């Protein structure tokens, strides 16, 4: 488990540097992973760890939107820093062109021709992009390509 080792090393560094944001964020990640392990009753695979990290990232992005809507710039800045820390542990995110290419491949493999077959495309596509792209963005691209 390379992620656990990396988290522990970064946690020690954050403690030494007195970086409260990094410290709290890494602790939250470790707690989320531990909770997922307890819930599953076994050690998590890399994909499952990535899924937990993606959930942590999504929660922080949702919080960022809420803080901006509530004019809480102080909390928004802290949340941006937390997002950067969580993203450090995730694989690089796909851009829209790469997602579009994967969507085209999924449409071709599934034989989908209209929006009614959206589920077929998503079913084959999501395992390929899990943890590397936001599901809402993927869904939007699939819908736009199926409507075209």
What is the gist of this entry?
The protein is mainly α. The chain is 80% helix and 0% strand. It has two domains: 2-89, Hypothetical Protein Yqey, Chain: A, domain1 (Orthogonal Bundle), CATH 1.10.1510.10; 96-147, Orthogonal Bundle (Arc Repressor Mutant, subunit A).
What's the SSE blueprint?
Blueprint: H1 2-17, H2 20-40, H3 46-69, H4 73-89, H5 96-110, H6 118-129, H7 135-147
Helix pairs in contact: 1-2, 2-3, 2-4, 3-4, 5-6, 5-7, 6-7
InterPro entries: Asn/Gln_tRNA_amidoTrase-B-like, GatB_Yqey_C_2, YqeY/Aim41, YqeY/Aim41_N
Protein name: GatB YqeY domain-containing protein
GO molecular function, one term: carbon-nitrogen ligase activity, with glutamine as amido-N-donor
- How does the helix and strand content classify structurally? mainly alpha
Let me know the largest β-sheet: none
In terms of quaternary structure, the protein is single chain
Within CATH, the superfamily of the largest domain carries the name Uncharacterised protein YqeY/AIM41, N-terminal domain
Q: How many structural domains does the protein architecture include?
A: 2
Morphology: globular
Helix content: over 70%
SS strand fraction = under 5%
Pfam family, one: YqeY
GO molecular function: carbon-nitrogen ligase activity, with glutamine as amido-N-donor
Protein name: GatB YqeY domain-containing protein
């Amino acid at each position: 488990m390379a992620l656990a080792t990396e988290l522990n090393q970064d946690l020690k560094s954050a403690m030494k540097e007195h970086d409260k944001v990094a410290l709290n964020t890494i602790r939250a990640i470790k707690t989320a992973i531990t909770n997922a392990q307890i819930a599953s009753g076994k050690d998590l695979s890399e994909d499952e760890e990535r899924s937990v990290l993606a959930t942590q990232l999504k929660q922080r992005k949702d919080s960022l939107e809420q803080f901006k809507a509530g004019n809480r710039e102080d909390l928004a800045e802290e949340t941006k820093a937390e997002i950067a820390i969580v993203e450090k542990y995730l694989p690089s995110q796909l851009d829209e062109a790469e997602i579009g290419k994967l969507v085209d491949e999924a449409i071709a493999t599934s034989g989908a021709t209209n929006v009614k077959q959206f589920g077929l495309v998503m079913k084959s596509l999501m395992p390929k992009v899990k943890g590397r792209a936001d599901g809402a963005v993927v869904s939007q691209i699939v819908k736009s390509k199926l409507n075209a």
